Amino acid sequence: MARQIALSLLLILTALPAWAAPSWQSLPPQSQSLLVPYAQEWASMPAHRRDRLAKLAEQYPALPPEQQARLRARLGEWARLTPEQRAKARDNYRKWQSLPPAERERLVQARRSASAVASAPASLRRGH
Asked: Which 8-state DSSP code applies to residue 23?
């Protein structure tokens, strides 16, 4: 009897993450609108990703308009990546997070400097 109860509890606990993640149909229309790039893959997406995206969509209305636009663009960009490109991006992010803060700041500054040079008028870049 105790074994049956333990087995039943184990089955219930392993199924909980799938129950917790929202189905596409259960998302509010505003969330569906934001997450539409993921509509086709939503059902096959791991529960933790669906849950994370659903929570992000809940927070979206409270963001300032600039952040809303940036988030919407980035969600679309991410959805267009292949699984291999997503894996590479995740790997790069893990590497970035493992860098010491001073090294990250140095790289950010180098990127900003390179971006400023690239966006300068051509006459200034040539030294005229």
From this structure: P
Q: Determine the Cα–Cα distance for residues 85 and 32; give it in Å rounded to an integer.
A: 24
Contact status, residue 49 vs residue 18, Cβ threshold 8 Å: no
* Dihedral angle computed from the Cα positions of residues 113, 114, 118 and 123, in that order, rounded to the nearest 10 degrees: 60
Number of CB atoms found within 10 A of residue 127's CB:
5
**pTM (predicted TM-score):** 0.62
Q: Indicate the pLDDT class of residue 114, thresholds 50, 70 and 90.
A: confident
Taking only the tens place, the pLDDT of each residue in 41-61 is 999 999 999 999 999 999 999
Cα dihedral sign for 24, 28, 32, 34? Answer: negative
Contact by Cβ (8 Å): 57, 31: yes
* One-letter amino acid for residue 74 of the chain: R
| CA 28 vs CA 23, 91, 92, 122: distances in Å | 10, 32, 33, 49
The alpha carbon of 113 is separated from its chain's Cα centroid by a whole number of angstroms, namely 27
